[in-house]
Design brief:
It contains four helices and 18 strands. By secondary structure, the chain is α+β, with helices and mostly antiparallel strands. The chain has three domains: 2-106 and 195-216, no CATH class; 108-193, no CATH class; 226-270, no CATH class. α1 packs antiparallel against α2.
Amino acid sequence: MILILVGGVVGALTGFISQEMVPSGETFKITNVVDAGPFAASQVPQDWSVKVNRFWIDYLPTGEIDQFYSDLSVLDKDEKEVDRQTIHVNKPLKHNGVTMYQASWGISGIKVRFNNSPELAFPMGQLKGMNGQFWGTFIPTKPDLSEGVSLVVKDLQGLVLVYNKEGKLVATARKGMAVDVNGIKLSITDVVGSTGLQIKADPGVPIVYLGFGLLMLSTLMSYISHSQVWGLYESGTLYLGGTTNRALVTFEQEFVSLMENLEAQPEEAVKP
């Protein structure tokens, strides 16, 4: 119990929790610390970073989310890859005492082309006050911003809703498709997802685990029956006593049997 308490104190003083929302393809360092102990600064890594190589979601035939994944690379200070793992819910990445959990997801942007233009990227923000999760952005179709369309997406399956400036749905498209809006051929090339990571470091965890292990061991040992018997021979008389931690009836029977065996022995045989 003392070890468990010590481990909890160590974790509270030196541990930290961070939450990061990172677009697919971006590299980040742990900066958004939401909770930390007074001595946690030394635990926040400064000499390595993490790159989100890819984020994707597997969907069920019903359209519901089955699982979401993040392909992560740990980079040293020279941006060389030292570890790479694909994480999902209940399968975190662990590196130098820091654990990264797959916690949430979002949509960070959308990539489009106007006619035969180069690919252009636009950020997307989450829309508030709607039934469900939706992300949207405004894309101008004229240089003076007098005309444009709003693109709204619900997930990473690729369906994009296109609204005019009056808020009327004018077209739907999927990734790789093109629609005609305001006299321009608008092609949807990609919907960029972002992974939500919860990052933790708790140096007190090994101490807590050790305490729990010893507690379990001592609990198991308490179920093992053990007995003690004492004897004192004085002035021709043998005094016997004993104790046991459980199975009192059985111990009493064994104790009586021991006394009967001693009574059957010659007096010289029981002298110390």
